[in-house]
Specification:
The chain has helices spanning 7-16, 20-32, 37-51, 66-81, 91-101, 103-110, 113-135, 137-142, and strands at 5-6, 53-56, 59-62, 84-85. With 143 residues, it is mainly α. The strands form two sheets. Strands 1-4 form a two-stranded parallel ribbon. It has a two-stranded antiparallel sheet with strand order 2-3.
Length: 143
């Protein structure tokens, strides 16, 4: 979907200016969006890389951060399916603004159930692969 708004711009319009007819148009458009398997997989990998590791002494160490995983999953859904462009360098602020205003819940409710469940399944699979392949005995034995 074409990116027309920053988070702040969309939230301001959502809270003050959007007519019901505009919101219905976005609801219809968002509900029709299909994201390719390759795009969903690439985003899931980014989420895992960002939420399963921390930098310590210049090295990445395995450390699962489930709240960060949740936040990044929600932000990626908004970024993929809506006209909002997410600034991932300010993830916490963007997430809080979207959540507090109700925009996050609105956007996610507009995405088709099939798309949401497929993205969740891919995120779970990429996370499981990361743990299995790099952090369990099986993975060490195979490498």
């Amino acid at each position: 979907m074409e990116k027309k708004y920053t988070v702040k711009e969309f939230v301001d319009k959502f809270e003050n200016n959007f007519a019901d007819s505009e919101l219905n148009i976005y609801k219809e458009e968002i509900g029709k969006v299909y994201i390719s398997l390759a795009e969903k997989t690439a985003r899931a990998k980014m989420i895992v890389d960002s939420s399963y590791y921390v930098k310590k002494d210049g090295k990445s160490e395995f450390y699962m951060n489930t709240p960060a995983n949740y936040m990044l999953s929600c932000l990626n859904i908004v970024d993929m399916y809506s006209p909002i462009s997410i600034d991932f360098k300010n993830s916490l602020e963007e997430f809080d603004l979207l959540s507090e205003s109700g925009v996050m819940a609105y956007i996610i409710s507009c995405v088709s159930e099939k798309e949401l469940s497929e993205f969740k399944m891919i995120c779970d699979a990429v996370g499981d692969d990361e743990v299995r392949n790099y952090h369990e005995i099986y993975g060490f034995a195979e490498r």
